[in-house]
Structures are given as C-alpha cells and as structure tokens.
Design a protein that fits this description.
It catalyses: ATP + H2O = ADP + phosphate + H(+). The protein is α/β, with parallel strands linked by helices. It has 21 helices and 20 strands. Among the domains are: 28-100, no CATH class; 149-398, 3-Layer(aba) Sandwich (Rossmann fold), CATH 3.40.50; 410-607, Rossmann fold, CATH 3.40.50.300. The longest helix has 22 residues, at 629-650. Bound molecules: adenosine-5'-triphosphate.
Amino acid sequence: MADGGLLLNFDLGDAPLKRQVKFTGGRWRDRVHAQRSARKNQDGFENGPTSSANSTPLSNHRQDFRHTHDQNERPTKRQKTFDYGNGQSDKISNTGARTASASTKPGGITSRLFTSNPTPRTVFEEPAEDVEPAKPSNAPLSEEAENFHALGLSPRIAQHLSSKLEMKAPTSIQKNSIPPLIKDDSDAFLQAETGSGKTLAYLLPIVQRIMNLSHREDGSATGTRIHRDSGLFAIVLAPTRELCKQIATVLEKVLRCAPWIVSTTVIGGESKKSEKARLRKGVNILIATPGRLADHLDNTKVLDVGTVRWLILDEGDRLMEMGFEEELKSIVGKIRKEELKKSNKEGVTLAALPQRRVTVLCSATMKMNVQRLGEISLQDAIHVTASKSESDGDAAVEANDAAFSAPSQLKQSYVVVPAKLRLVTLIALLKSAFARKGSVMKAIVFISCADSVDFHFDLLRSSPSHPSSDESSLTRDTVSDAAYITSPANPDITLLKLHGSLQQPVRTATLTSFRTSKNPCVLITTDIASRGLDVPAVDLVIEYDPAFSVEDHVHRIGRTARAGRPGKATLFLQPGCEEGYVELLKSSSALVPQSYESTLQKGFVTPITLPKSDQTSEPQTLVSDRQTPNSRAEALQLHLEQRLLASAKDGGNSKLLDAARQAFRSHIRAYATHVRDERVYFDITQLHLGHTAKSFGLREAPGGIGGGPSRRTIKPGQQKKTGSGQKKGDDSDREDGAGAGAVDEDAARRMRMKMKQVMSAAGEFNIG
Ligand SMILES: Nc1ncnc2c1ncn2[C@@H]1O[C@H](COP(=O)(O)OP(=O)(O)OP(=O)(O)O)[C@@H](O)[C@H]1O
C-alpha cells in the first residue's frame, strides 16, 4: 500500500508538536495489544505512544508492528518473523546478545523497512559503459605549453615549485591571475571552480613582489635586506580558523625559497597576548579571521598597516554568509584610512610593491553577497576567471558558465532513498565504497547539524569502551574505528567527526588526523568542512543531508576532484519534492541517478559483521536466515534500533538513544533552514517524521521539535562569528560614508555595475 499519508504539516514554533497515536494496519487484536503495550511503556520512549499531546506521522500511516521483549525474558534462540510485505516472511535468528533478533524493550514497536515507502518518480538507468572520462577542468596545464617562470615568477620560485612542491605548470586561474597581479596594481576578483589552485594564484604574486624588494629578476641582490621587521605588506582574510591555517601552511611551503619573508596567523583560539607578541616581533604577511584582525586593529598598537599593499578576501561569499560584513567594512576602512607609506621605518623604499592598496576577492561561486563584498572592498577590479582575464573596460562580461559548475572530472550521482531506508543505505554505500582495500581512501559525509554528526559518529563507531585512540589524546572523542563500515577485506577504517561546537584544538587535531591518516578514513561533518578544505586524497563525498543552498553543494562536492584528480560525489534525496532539486543542479552539472536498491545490493552483498560490544569480545556476524541484501538491511536496522534501546537501559554507549532523539530534533529544524528559493524542494511539510525517525534508529518521532536544541543549527546568514570575540565597534560611524576611511562611493558604484554584469550570468542558475 502506498503511504497514505501522513505527512505532517507543522509550524516550527516553540510549542511541542501535537501527538496523536493511532495504530492502523495488521490484525485488530494486534492493534489493541500494541496500544496497551505502548501505554505501559514508560521508560523506552521519551513520550509513550499514548502520551497525549504530541503528534506523530505514524498516525494515519499504515503501521506494521510487532512486540519485542526484554532480552532477559526470552530464550536467546527464539526466532522472529518478518513479513516483507509481499507475502513472504523472513526469520532473523539470534547471534547472541547483539544480533538482529536480540530482544528489545517491552512494548517496543518496529515498523518494517521495506513497506509503505513512497515510490521515487526518478527513472533509473543503467549507467552507460565505456564512457570516455571527462578531461579534468581544474588540472595543471600541460608542462610543455606553460610554466611558472613564463608567467613572471623568478626562476628561484619556479624552481622551488617544481622541485620541492612538485608543481611544474600553473593551473588556468594561476596562468590568468599571476601576470596581472605581478605587473599591475589593479584590484582583482578571482573566480574559479573548487580545487583549481586559487590560493597560489594570489600568494605567488605577493611573494614574488616582496622578493623583488631584495632580488632582481635575474636573482642578483638589490642591496636591500628584507626581514620580518621590514613591514607588514599583505593581509589575507579567510572565514574560518581551519582555512587560515591551511593557507598559512601553503604559504610556509612557498616561503621556504625565501625564508627571510615571515608570515603568521591571528585567528583566535589562542591568547591575544601571544598573538600580539608575534606581531611585535614583526611579520610581512598576515593571515587572519576578520573578527580577530578587527580586534587587533582596534587594540594592538604595534600592528601598523601603513605599509600594507594587499588585502586578500578568500572565500568571499562565506565571509559574508558568516556575518562578517561589519568587520570587513571596518577593516577595509581602517586600512584605506592609513596613509600609504612609500618607504618603511628603516627608510627602505618600497617601489617594487604596488603603489596603491590592492584588494583581491576570491570565490568559487558567485552570489549576491559577493557582489556586496565587491562593492565594499574592490575598486575598478579586473575579473579573472579560469578561462580569461578581463580588464574593467567597456567590454561586457560574458556569462560565466564556470561560476557554479563542478570540476568536469567529478562523477556525480544521486540516490533517491525513502526516509526509513536512509540509514541502512548510507551504511551500504560506505560499505561498498570501502569494500576493497585501496578502492577509496578518504570519504567525507556531510550532515546538516552538529547533533546529527555526533549521533552518527557514535552509532557507526566501535563502542567507546573499546577506544581506538589514546584516552589522553585530543581526538579521543572524534576519531575511532568505523566499526560498521569495515569488512574482513578492509578491516582498518578510521571514522572521524568534525563540527563547529568542538573546541578549536580538537578540531585542529581531528583535521590533522584526517589529512595525515594512512588508513582509509570517513569524516562525518557539518558544512564547516565544506569550504576551502584541501585534502587531496578525498575521493568520495556523500551529501547525506542535502546542502542548504546550491552554492554550499558546489563547495561540498568540491572537496574531491581537486587539481585534476578524479573524484565521486553522491547526493541523498527522498522521493517526492526533493527529486525536483536535481533539475536545479543539472543546470550546472550532470548527475546520474542511482537506485537505493542497487546501493543496498552492493553494500550488503556479503553478511554484515558487527563490531565487538560490551557483551561480545569478538566481532559477530549478523545473521538473517534469508541471506539477501534486503534481509541484511532489515537485520542491521533492527540491530541498531536495539542498540539504542539497550543504551537507554544500561546508560552505556554515550546514551545513544538520547543522542538519536536530539539529532532527530536538530535535523528537523535544520531542514527548515534551506534557502528560501530552494524550499520548494525541501518542503518541511512533506517530511514524514515517523519515517525520518527510523533513519535515526528511533521507532517513533520524539517530541519537542519546537523546543530549542542544545546546539542551535547555524543557518547561512546566521552564522555565529567564529573567532571574532569582537564588538561591533564604531562601524556605524562609517556606514554613512562620513569617516575618512569610508569606502569611496564612486568606486563602489562602478564596482556595483561591474559585479552586476557578472551577476547577470549567475541569474540563469536561479541563485540569489
Ligand atoms: N599548479 C599546480 N600544480 C599542481 N597542483 C596544484 C597547483 N596549484 C594548486 N595545486 C593543488 O591544488 C589543490 C587545490 O588548491 P587550492 O586549495 O588553492 O584550490 P582552490 O581553488 O582555493 O579551491 P577551493 O575553492 O575549494 O578553496 C591543492 O592541493 C594544491 O596543492
């Protein structure tokens, strides 16, 4: 029977959802029995099924149910029968304490996995074989045709890039941006797809021009000695501490060929005192988060921006999304207000540097907030893309199709999965991806909110009583064994989690662990890892929860297929309105549909091994009598549900049941925060709460969705200001253009026109 319904139509206010439980389907006697059991069940669920107020979509929905019994009350060998909705039944036998048919709490009710699911309207085709792989679009250019020296970089840098960093030829964006940034003093807007090398595209010209102060192009010395105290020449701003650290690492590698140039970071997360001490010692290139920089500009006298020639705004749209507009205005204003020093305090003339302040804005995607940032920060900028460099003249900016497209070599697919089957399908997908050793090395799973990341990490790891990392280590709660993904053929897979609610040192240590691990790894994360993160070995991205906006999607999938490498990305969608989202994505890239049935087939082709538990010293095989992928999926789902219930009872396993409920609530709230234009595809009124609960291992939707979660989901535009610690300061003075450092209105107007031309190309993608 098709799902009759019931999809909740609710307002996410503060009041808890109304609950009205009615068991339908099955035999009359069973229904009565279930009602009674549910009423008696005081401790298994947060609100017993009959407990008044809250509504569940399980109501009106045909429920298949059965009773479960306490483990201690029943013989371990007793078998349970499942009806698969097609008249066939399946027995799932016990394999000890934690097998499929291990018992659950009295009154527990399970809904069958494969019945009453909505049917996808997507037509699945067998992927065409022998398709010529697409030519990488973000790869370095051919070495014969291009080299760094020809772009104006000194032989010293070119040689260093080639021999030490194994970069023989530039990428397209580097080819187009390095010459103008070395020769000219114009502002620039660099726009190129993810993984195309934008970081070096702006760093190399800066390093080259600072080197030019002390060395001529032929390498001979100019007689000027540049050292850390010679002045601050460039500031790079990036939205997160992780990104700042990553940029700092790239820069450090480049500066090994010019060790007299010194860089540092001011990103928060450590005492301001030690940051001040580093600034006092002297620095030539500073990498900072906006909040922290604004703070130092206000409070650190030793920070002299008179010699600053470059201001780089990396990940421009993210800077704006995270609410840094005020800080950015303040920073731009303060730097412009400061008179440009032609020589430094030692009297060294800075003629080799730009003779005006140059601002460079970088972004892989283009949206309205980038236009706004362009207005704030750029003056008569050139627009540099991977395919061309265009000066600010009368020439119209052509539609830039690359603005939202993913790297061409990235293989994208989407799998349409009914809500109930999401969890087992995710596990199946990961199992099949990691089935063979070496097939996939690193995968990233994107999830909408931190609570859900925490829950899925705890669910898929080995029991915390079997820690895989050193108890005293920073990563003891964020790195573990991927117990449910491993297989005899690939037994050592590491599971990691990352989100913004973790302490900074833990975030850094976890990312380092992901980056450097020699084992295959799965990182479960929120969008905190969606921007800029560069881990070349990532070969699979799974969007388990779709991104909040198309731009976020482009950035997420851009964590793979970097610098010409291959990569795969799979997006989870649910049958119904979510399927329409593909049409929006198709305008920028090709996606191949994949059925969840085939994912389950591939993932559960062999019996599932369960990890060691507190009850079992050895891994157990999850047995289902009918050795089919679907029956294994059923057995796995049942096992996970029982684990949750058991955790509530013995308090072990980090109280997984509580974590599941919290994750479910936060997930539902996060679902409501898709950008307005895309809510037609992510319509919360179409979400089936009972089925969704199942994908959290819950047997019914918990109440309290209207209440505040312990950690609020941060939605785009409402980001907390990480690393800021910054009061708004006196920006309001400048907003009306009164301050000496106010953004030049005329320049802003010209830039607005320019950005509008570029933006008109974005319009066709429905992105605003
Ligand atoms: N010329 C080059 N040759 C080979 N590899 C390169 C070259 N330039 C950059 N790379 C590598 O490409 C990868 C991506 O670079 P980078 O992080 O700068 O990309 P990006 O365009 O900033 O991506 P995103 O938009 O996702 O932040 C890095 O691993 C970098 O080392």
